[in-house]
Amino acid sequence: MRVFDRQVILLGVLAWLIGGCATNEVQTPPASTSSPLASNRATVPNEPWLLVDTKADRLMIMQGEQPVQVFHQVALGSSGAGLKLRRGDNKTPLGVFRVGWINDHSRFKKFIGLDYPNLDYAEQALREHRIDRLTYERIRAAWISGRTPPQDTPLGGQIGIHGIGFGDPGVQSAGINWTSGCVALDNRQIDALRPWVKVGMRVEIR
Predict the structure, then answer these.
(1) Which end of the chain has a smaller Cβ tally under 10 Å, C or N?
(2) In the chain, what are the domain boundaries?
């Protein structure tokens, strides 16, 4: 196969993958009985949690401050990681989140949805006039009631951790940041991660 043909195929695969991390992935999680604001900022002792190190391109299952298992060569949004400002910026949001829902039958094999936008993002966006007061109150009300924040605001949504499904494994192994803002593992890694994950689990992306 000619180099040009391979490039065309790779571009086509990337277009399919980046077309949306999680279209129609959102499911309503069970209501939380704890304070969402407090749970977003505190780690329960000895409770496993997930740490995504965006500089080292790895995801770690943590027990306290000790890694239990490490997954290397994760992919991020095509615009990298940082403060996510708006829908469609393809940025992986830094911050502390919780698992809001899990889809074990995703087109990305498994999809672990995060409760983005959280209150930190909503409060900053309100101060900077990127969302209006009504949108802020919708996000805040969801948090107070333990529901997944609205996914249709200007801040974007449908951010999570997922596999590649039927996508080309070569894209992942090539170290390309290809997602629309999610954190991607290969299919073998997402299968290994899944038994550790439950709704409400802390996830820190830094």
Answers:
(1) N
(2) 3-205
List all residues 6 or more positions away from 120 whose beta carbon is below 8 Å from its beta carbon. Answer: 40, 95, 96
Q: Which of 51, 118, 43 is nearest to 83 (CA)?
A: 118
Report the length, in residues, of the chain: 206
pTM over 0.90: no
Residue for token digits 């992942």? 172
- Report d(CA 103, CA 184) in Å as an integer: 14
CA within 13 Å, CB half, 123: 5
CB 135 within 8 A of CB 157: no
Contact 125, 131 (CB under 8 A): yes
**C-alpha 165 chain-centroid distance:** 16
Fold (CATH) for 3-205? L,D-transpeptidase catalytic domain-like (2.40.440)
pLDDT (mean) for 113-121: 97
Reported in sequence order, the residue ranges of the chain that DSSP labels E, i.e. its strands, are: 48-53, 58-63, 66-72, 81-82, 92-93, 95-106, 109-114, 160-162, 183-184, 202-205
